[in-house]
Amino acid sequence: MVQFRSLRLSLRFVVPLVIALGILAYGVVPLVDNLTLRWFVRDIDIRSQLIGRTLHEPLAQLLPEGNRSRINALLLRATQDERLLALGYCDAGGVLRYRTPAFPKSLDCSAIALKDKNKDEGTLLHLPQGSVHVSVHPMVEDGGEGGSLILVHDMSFVERRSADTRKYVLTFFVVLGIVVSLITVFVAHLSWRGWMEGVRAMLRGEGILRPFTPQKVQNSELQPLVGDLRALLRTLDAERRFADDATITWSPESLRTLLHKQLVGEKILVVSNREPYLHIKKDDHIEVNRPASGLVTAVEPVMRACSGTWIAHGSGSADRETVDRHDRVRVPPQKPEYNLRRIWLTKDEEQGYYYGFANEGLWPLCHIAHVRPVFRTSDWEQYVKINQRFADAVVAEADNDDPVVLVQDYHFALLPGMIRKALPKATIITFWHIPWPNPESFGICPWREELLKGMLGSTILGFHTPYHCKNFLETVDRYLETRIEHESSTISRRGHLTMVESYPISIQWPPPWEGALPPVATTRAEILQGLGLPPEQLLGVGVDRMDYTKGILERFAAVERMLELHPELAGRFTFVQIAAPTRSALEEYRAFEARVHGMSERINDRFARDGRPAIILKAQHHEPEEVNRYYRAADVCMVTSLHDGMNLVAKEYVAARDDERGALVLSQFTGAAHELHEALIVNPYHVEQTAEALYRALTMPDYEQQERMRSMRALVRDFNVYRWAGRMLLDAARVRQRQKLAARIGGES
Ligand code: F6P
Fold it and tell me: Is the pTM of the predicted complex or chain greater than 0.70?
């Protein structure tokens, strides 16, 4: 295909060239003919004069004698010169007196007499037997006017030589034309390939990699044009993104439309470790649980909108009993909309891959929350093995060779590379839900190169914030041989391109229970009553997994400090901490949970008044509807993570407050703090500052609560989870289009 196109392009150069050469050849040949003829005529003129002068004297002696035989013999001898065809003698009266045998019959003295005898130049005549050159040499006879010696030269040799010259000239020009054409074809071919390579690279996104553009494209004379095209593409991309944001109202419907239009109805495959629904044995029946997971909260509504298959670890005690023979179950249970494909792990596998490498290694490594990461070879081996198992499941679930796969989180750093190997044309969107540390911190990991290479199998690699993207680019720059374009946030490795982009995750909007809830006052009254607190009690809430990254101890310290600073609130304020048990197989987590319990007890010992505790710790799983009731009841929600990719609790709290009341205290170390500017932003390591923010939240006037909450709600509404997924899918669709276009114009992608 490439060759055919370059040939066509070459012909466009060659055809006019050949025409030009033809014109040149046919213009030049007659000119050359003419010149050769003139050279030969002049040559014959000179020879004629020479022969004339040589014959003059003996002929002048013989003529008066009138000795015919001797004169004829003289003339005949002279014609032995190969080019002198014949000689004749015309007397003064214009009668041909003597002639050699070859003297042309059609030539008579009257015709010759017309010629100027005194002229040195001969005349060319075209006679029936061929062209001849006739020259006249005047003879002076005794007693006056003399006759003329007529010299007739054969001109056929001139024609022969002319024909030869014409042949040589034509051959020369044809050969020259062919050589020039071949050079042109070669140059055109190279230019076309260079150009195509440039355009293809650009379409793949590589074109934006200015400093690392392949040498031959860089040196190409098309470079300025490629540069302009790049700039144009970049502007168009930016404008299109801007237009998308301005014109699309992100909802399940718009996401579905996008999927069908832009990704031509592609079936989506999601891969995560945590499954969205767990089947749990409870006494003699099976219950369905939804885990406390930001990932599940975000991806589930997307999956419901798009359908497809979600591949996840089947970790519920009754999971095996509820799947079909392909390990699939339709979910949500009440209204099935997509497939959940469960992957089974043995205890050892779960220990090594999930608890070990993912949660003792990568989790603390990425969070930099002052818990040292632990890396063991045995954990790594399980991590590799389980990533491969999930990759095999993706290949088995894909019903074409270019599926759209959404890979979730740090459990699957190797998965993109493995899928890419099996399905080179797949569109792989990997989203890293936790922070990405700086290169030095990440460098601690003994398998850092393998992890990075695996991640670079992705088409798009998403983080919550531009800051995490920057860290990732710098890490890759430090540890791998790649070409990185920081301006466009793309990495090229071994011909494969990965776009690194920030996509702040969010929650569904409108919330699932919108319009179906009792008024806030009712919920508040019920919650307070349930907690055994009086109706006027000030209520704070924190909702987390029991994880050391969440800043639960720092939060309690702030509550304690606030009560120290404002003792009048002791007994009037209670903080409810919902903490879902998590990863309790790990010692670090068990120790942390014990510290949380210990600290809440200690604070309660100091500040509880008449059965009204300062802290109520609810260390158990709560279903989302129940959590939402607490959000609606609370005067303040505290999110004090020490480091968090986004933290969706902050957004859930805002979404729950349709009464536009309540205040949010938010850690500056969460991704959410980059978006929810109207929250009271704190450094959780700074106990007084956090305590002060808590107090300010509890005493915030209604109008201020309303203004802040209204603004934050608008943001969560517009930047909802459908936009998060939609932006990634839109970018993926663009990449796919570019790859297809690159394949069409270049025969390969
Ligand atoms: O933050 C990373 C993450 O995967 C979240 O998306 C989720 O909230 C949490 O970890 C879940 O952890 P686990 O699945 O280990 O309980």
Answer: yes
